[in-house]
Amino acid sequence: MCRMCGRYTLTTSSHLIEMLFSVESTQELKPRYNIAPTQQIPLVRIAAGGVKELVELRWGLIPGWSRERKADHGIINARAETVRIKPSFRGPFRSRRCLVPADGYYEWQSTDGGKQPHYIRMKDGAPFALAGLWDLWVGKGGSTAIESCTIITTVPNQMLSPIHARMPVIIGPENYGQWLDHETSDVESLQILLRPFLEDAMEAYPVSQVVNNPRNDTEECLVPLS
């Protein structure tokens, strides 16, 4: 099924997202229960002039240096352990970091009966921010320009390790400014942020395989499996 972090949700209201990330938006975000790669996803980044903005980019990174658009899906995840050195990520890691608002994500656990999807969220149901990178790819002659992004993953915390070998990096509110600051040259301090999130704040429960199909974007995806 999905490798690493391949599906997530964002059902939080636009107003709350704006408050949490101290950003203004010109669009109303509709609830999304099964966000999948290749879709446009909202993220927070620092724009020209140092202004924080909420924009929608394609999930699936196309490196800016690529001569051609080689893959339909792009790179949906970047490993925290190698994000500083991999050619596709080292440039964005230095100066094009972003936060991806979410209020939960899905992961598939291998069982004797097949892949069992789980929904993972904060115990209090609060939204949170995934660590992301973005880049701009321009086609030959400048005829096509695509802004795309990827989500960084790390090893799981103890609670999530039985479900999957990876989890997305979650950035705490106290570190939003540091992560978004594209002028910082202290990559060591940024690397420290790419760690598993506190397990005591999180919970996970099995859900129906209806989530396996990304066209199923309804509240049914979140219903605990009886």
Main traits of this protein?
4 helices; eight-stranded mixed sheet; globular; 226 residues; single chain; mainly beta; hypothetical protein yedk fold; 35% strand; five-stranded antiparallel sheet; 13 strands
Description of the structure:
The chain has helices at 14-21, 90-95, 176-180, 187-192; strands at 7-10, 32-35, 40-46, 52-59, 77-79, 97-102, 104-111, 114-122, 128-138, 145-154, 167-168, 170-171, 202-206. By secondary structure, it is mostly beta strands. It has one domain (7-222): SOS response associated peptidase-like (hypothetical protein yedk fold). The strands form two sheets. Strands 3, 4, 5, 6, 9, 10, 11 and 12 form an eight-stranded mixed β-sheet that branches. A five-stranded antiparallel β-sheet has the order 2-1-7-8-13, with no helix packed on it. A hairpin with a 6-residue loop joins β9 (128-138) and β10. The mean pLDDT is 93.
